[in-house]
Amino acid sequence: MFALLISVIVSAAAAAACVVSKAGTGSAVAAGIAAFLGAQFLTGWIVRKRVTKVQEALQEMLANGQKQMNRKIQLFQSKPGGNIKQIQRQLESDQKALIKEALAFLERFEPFRKWNLLMGRQIATMRLQFLYQLKDFEAVDRLLASMGLFKGPMMMEPMTIAMKMARQYEHGELEKLEKTFKRHIKWMRGNRGTLLYGLMSWAYLQKGDSEKARLLLVKAKDVTGDETLAHNWEMLANNKDKQFSNAGLGEQWYGLYLETPPLPKQQRVRMNAHGGRPF
In angstroms, rounded to a whole number, what is the distance separating the alpha carbons of residues 165 and 184? Predict the structure, then answer.
């Protein structure tokens, strides 16, 4: 948008200057192209620099909030006999407040929409992640329904794709879930597809198709090298469907809210280094 318009104007001005000075058609074309590319680079560099400052401010805000939660966890661990459920409720409340603050912070990115064609999608992707953490699934579904070339969240990271798949599962849209999985899994190299394989095989099993889940895990365990997927394949291969478990995928799996994590023992009450689920 603005960056493109400025580049076109600069390019046209450079070409016109060559024409006026009778430098020749070839020179005018070359000058126009060079001016366009130069203007694109300069405006892009300026915008990226300013966007980076806003991103760093957002990261600092989240990091400070998470540090405060980590201190509460350390204090709780240093005092045996505390109420686990109480500290969990407190941490959940703190996490919710932090995410709401982050959602409000996203407004600072809005001015850059005019300068970057993809900024709207980047904002939508961050908003999707925060809304999902808040379990505001109505808003999540609206965002996912707004998918388009220059709008809606970007489906590039495994966790974001898994969020979309999880919502399709919750809506009973198994065919759409399979389509989403197949569209994106081919781009996942190595263990990047672990969460998607785990989710898809779990969905098959929940729908009573353990054979599809087993066949999927035959490939998944070799492609990803993940121990959890290999264990699940072994359980299904030995008709031990009830022992299938994605718990080994950790917070990423439980962060989809498809299953409730087990209540930790008091001496093991922890959060990861970033506090909360890793999105």
Answer: 11
d(CA 1, CA 3): 5
Q: Which two tokens stand for residue 265?
A: 């023992």
DSSP of 113-170: GGT-TTHHHHHHHHHHHHHHHTT-HHHHHHHHHT--SSSS----SHHHHHHHHHHHHH
Tell me 178's DSSP state.
Answer: H
Does residue 266 carry a pLDDT above 80?
no
CATH fold for the domain made of 156-279: 1.25.40
Determine the straight-line distance between the first and last CA of the chain, rounded to whole angstroms.
30
Q: With H, G, I as helix, E, B as strand and everything else as coil, classify residue 93.
A: helix
Domain residue spans of the chain? 156-279
Q: How confident is the model at residue 56 (pLDDT cuts 50, 70, 90)?
A: very high
Above 60 in pLDDT, residue 149? yes
- On the question of pLDDT at 113 being above 90, the answer is no
The contacts of residue 47 (CB under 8 Å, 6+ apart) are 3, 112, 115, 116
Q: What are 90's two structure tokens?
A: 């407190």
- Give the CA dihedral 49, 52, 53, 56, nearest 10 degrees: -160
Which residues touch 170 (CB under 8 Å, ≥6 apart)?
137, 258
* Cβ neighbourhood burial of 187 (10 Å; 0-12, 13-18, 19+): exposed
